[in-house]
Amino acid sequence: MDIGDHALETTRGLLDRSATVRHGYLDVLGESTASPAPTLAQRAMNSAFVATVYERLWRPVAFYVASGVTTGAEQRRAADALRLRGAARLLDVACGPGNFTGKLAQRLPDGGLAIGFDISEPMLTRAVLDNSGPRTCYVRGDARELPFGDETFDAVCCFGALYLMPEPFQVAHEMVRVLRPGGRVAILTSYAGQAAPARQALTGAARLIGLRMFDRHAFVDLFTSSGLVDVEQQTQRTLQFVTAAKPG
Question: Which residues form a coiled coil (predicted)?
Fold first, then answer.
């Protein structure tokens, strides 16, 4: 068994349901289940073209404009916030083409495993091609019902996707559920904290393409009410970065 097969089989053992191997990733949904893509933004995330250009062009430019933070700085901030040097298992929800999964996997200790999770087949196919390694595995599924048992992961993250999802708070609750005591969670999502005229224009434009803008309290309150501690929030332009820990 090579190192790629080892990561895949380890991940298969963590799943709470059967999965098939497709294009190098594990699929718990099956070929007959199409990715839901009712909005313009969701259709883009299920496009093979967008999957190809996302990591190198789309995301670096769009997120720098939205926050003033480079992708490299984002990845370093994420690794620090999640305390990956002491984490054995990481779950990257809505991982897209694995641009964070692969980089964060490199921060894990020897024997660590980073699982990238997404519903988009084109994104996961690109992730396997571009961001695979001895500590990575990718899984296709629905984040509203993560196919893992309670308290499975030392670190759970979701960067730049919750505002695309039809039930983002359900996804966030699932992220908390699979986080082990002592583990840490981090999200990067939209932020509507601007002055009224700018906020209204931004929210209206986002709604047209299927994006949701979250206020300052949405995820801070969710994590707090879920029993998490050390909740911290950073806001930059139109994005917010929120971290928290599950009591040990």
Answer: none
